Amino acid sequence: MTSVFDLAPETPVVPVVVIEDAADAVPLARALVAGGLPLIEVTLRTPAALDAVRAIAAEVPDAVVGVGTVVSAAGVAEAVGAGARFLVSPGWTERLLGAMRESGVPFLPGVSTASEVVALLEQGVDAMKFFPAEAAGGVPYLKSLAGPLPRARFCPTGGVSLANARGYLSLPNVGCVGGTWMLPPEALAARDWARVETLAREAAAVRVPVGG
Ligand code: 3PG
């Protein structure tokens, strides 16, 4: 199956969206896409989330909309029913993993320890979210995992910013990074889509240094 890492390989930065009003979904997604971030993760943390996913899927064809904070099999079904093209979870259980596998769309179950990584590899899953990235050890931790567990590839999320994204993306075992830094609360409250587009453009310009 296609991995989340292959959905938009040129722009390996995933904006993590917490949406309060579904009416904001389309202009917000258009701003992110215009800034160069087509992969958009809408978190299942607000009542507006599924309507937002439906709206983006229907009206922003250049976006690849997925659903995050998926923590149950019911959440998987709701997300896919709304049009999610990928799924992300902060953690995983056998039940959740089974539902994600059956969904037919790429998924990133969450891990923060070596044992969780080993358990996922044992299940045949090698693409995972590393969460909460900064609090769980950040770049040095992921660097340490690359030796013993080279098959695992991560999307670090949680505390990732413009300042540290490049450090993560230069690691051989990182496929993308996720975060909210291009969606500051004050810009969302003001519906300042031009600001979101500018921040998205900055995020999309993060490039891995040559030889990094
Ligand atoms: C989350 O699930 O909230 C994401 O990991 C985003 O975290 P951030 O706000 O630290 O970028």
UniProtKB/TrEMBL annotation:
Q: Which InterPro entries match?
A: Aldlse_KDPG_KHG, Aldolase_TIM, KDPG/KHG_AS_1, KDPG/KHG_AS_2
Question: Subunit details for this protein?
Answer: Homotrimer.
Give the catalytic activity. 2-dehydro-3-deoxy-6-phospho-D-gluconate = D-glyceraldehyde 3-phosphate + pyruvate
Q: Name it.
A: 2-dehydro-3-deoxy-phosphogluconate aldolase
- Molecular function terms from GO: (R,S)-4-hydroxy-2-oxoglutarate aldolase activity; 2-dehydro-3-deoxy-phosphogluconate aldolase activity
| Primary enzyme class | lyase
Family per record: Belongs to the KHG/KDPG aldolase family.
Q: What pathway does this protein act in?
A: Carbohydrate acid metabolism; 2-dehydro-3-deoxy-D-gluconate degradation; D-glyceraldehyde 3-phosphate and pyruvate from 2-dehydro-3-deoxy-D-gluconate: step 2/2
Q: Corresponding gene?
A: eda
Quick check: keyword Lyase in the entry?
Answer: yes
One protein family per Pfam: Aldolase
